[in-house]
Write a structure and sequence with these properties.
Layout: H1 2-10, H2 18-28, H3 37-49, H4 56-60, H5 78-88, H6 96-112, H7 118-129, H8 137-149, H9 156-187, H10 189-192, H11 200-210, H12 217-240, H13 243-255, H14 266-290, H15 295-317, H16 324-334, H17 337-348, H18 357-365, H19 369-383, H20 399-406, H21 412-437, H22 442-458, H23 468-477
């Protein structure tokens, strides 16, 4: 039963069986105390994902020797190791056993690949390269289905439902993408700003990942519009405007008045009008569906983003070299994810007890971990040397390079390890938000988690500056 629940979740069709899964979880929770590695670790992961309070140290202690190390006999249990490896990524930074679990399972799974049957070897390699918790569920689902189809014992009904779900989602996503393309052409921003990026498909991939399911179709369309305008504004600041024009642009945004845009250059005026219109439409939609109109919060979020871009523009114009931490703090804002997250928050509706008006105001001022975590992960990933956007000039700075300047005795490889360590800590903080604090509604928390998962796909450039995982993701889900 637990394996069936796991397969339903991995195939992204568990939403059809929510009541049955909840009932089964209550009945099979005792498996977390099993002496079988696969049973115990699978039960732990499913329980933690479902919001149950379970201790990894208590569970894994049964699988270690007197020195606290995992027993070597476990190295031959490939399926148990796979489950242990999946479990290790649910670390909230407080369970020492999960660090050891990740190292032990990763080491022995890697060494086992050359001895395994081809289908299982491919599955293990994919699991190591794209850990389940850190990866896009829709992307993993297609690979998991291929693995199930290679097994001698088939779960035909489950496979058919998953295939039907893939096809329905693909048609829905293609329709949404066409609507966004029409909107983008109607705006005329690509003609007015030839230097800016024109990547409608890439922008849509963010929304398609963050908000999943047929219920959120209109929200994905609106959120893609916001994403496109974030990219356009970023390019205006990086490639088009003078410092004086950018300062005026920023002040005009704070006025939130279309008439005030008349003094702006034509391209900024067009961008402002599109931004103003889309944001107000989202505010009206949120008011109609959920109650209070959030336009004051959305205006403030745009002002914060523009202030962040202006700080970067001032650094560049005056040849200032910011401290690494100052750069990173501002870079979290200019990643654009906090702005997109605030729009997502209001589109979904803040019906959670902790999301009262005072808490909502802090979304922008204090940026809780659910919002700041994915944004910091994005900034750090983007700043790694292999993750430079192919369409940009690389003038925004880099935390890694600033860190090296501040630590001259540090080797580049050590700086990269430091950055990856920061990313790992942000994942632990995000896990605490998802599995322990639960500040926000489940739908918004899931959106934040999905945004973090998308980062490594969107910025994982190979040696040819291509994005192989993103291309595979597009092929599977859209093309």
């Amino acid at each position: 039963m637990m394996a069936t629940i796991d397969n339903l979740k991995r195939l992204c069709i568990d939403h059809y069986f929510e009541e049955e899964i909840e009932s089964a979880m209550d009945e099979y929770m005792h498996l977390v105390h099993s002496d079988d590695l696969l049973h115990a670790t699978l039960a732990f992961r499913l329980m933690r994902e479902s919001g149950h309070d379970v201790s990894a140290d208590d569970i894994l202690g049964r699988f270690t020797d007197s020195a606290g190390e995992f027993r070597l006999s476990l190295s031959k249990d490939v399926k148990g190791l796979l489950s242990l490896h999946d479990m290790s990524h649910l670390n909230m930074g407080e369970e020492a056993s999960l660090y050891k679990a990740k190292e032990f399972s990763g080491k022995h799974l890697t060494s086992s690949i050359r001895y395994l049957e081809r289908g299982l070897a491919r599955y293990v390699r994919q699991s190591l390269d794209h850990p389940y918790h850190l990866s896009l569920t829709q992307y993993k689902a297609r690979h998991h289905l291929s693995y199930l189809q290679s097994l001698p014992t088939r779960k035909t009904a489950m496979e058919e439902l998953a295939l039907a779900e893939f096809q329905l989602n693909k048609l829905m996503h293609q329709d949404e993408l066409q609507e966004i393309r029409r909107w983008w052409v109607d705006q005329g921003l690509a003609r007015e700003l030839p230097a800016a990026r024109n990547q409608v498909l890439k922008w849509y991939m963010w929304s398609m990942t963050v908000l999943q399911g047929s219920l959120f179709s209109i929200y994905r369309i609106e959120l893609t519009k916001i994403s496109s305008l974030i990219y356009v504004v970023d390019d205006i600041f990086d490639l088009v405007g003078t410092l004086e024009e950018l300062s005026l642009f920023t002040e005009t945004i704070k006025m939130w008045d279309v008439a005030a845009a008349d003094s702006l250059p034509s391209c900024m005026r067009s961008c402002y009008k599109a931004l103003y219109t889309v944001t107000n439409e989202i505010a009206d939609m949120a008011e109609k569906e959920h109650g209070p109109n959030p336009i004051s919060h959305l205006k403030k979020a745009w002002a914060v983003l523009f202030d962040g871009f202006l700080i970067e523009a001032n650094w560049l114009a005056t040849d200032q070299v910011p401290a690494a931490e100052d750069y990173l703090r501002n870079g979290v804002v200019t990643s654009g994810l906090p702005l997109a997250s605030v729009h997502t928050f209001f589109l979904l509706g803040y019906d959670h007890a902790a999301s009262n008006e005072a808490a909502v105001a802090k979304l922008i001022d204090d940026m809780p971990p659910g919002i700041s975590g994915p944004a910091k992960i994005l900034r750090l990933w983007d700043d790694l040397g292999s993750a430079k956007d192919e369409a940009q000039e690389g003038l925004d700075g880099s935390y890694r390079e600033l860190y090296l300047m501040e630590n001259p005795s540090c080797a580049p490889s050590e700086a990269e390890a430091h950055v990856r360590g920061l990313i790992a800590r942000e994942w632990e903080e995000l896990n605490r938000e998802c599995f322990s604090r639960r500040t926000f509604s489940p739908s918004f928390t899931q959106a934040c988690l999905n945004a973090a998962r998308m980062v490594s796909v969107m910025y994982a450039y190979d040696q040819e500056k291509r994005l192989p995982v993103l291309e595979d993701y597009m092929r599977i889900l859209l093309l």
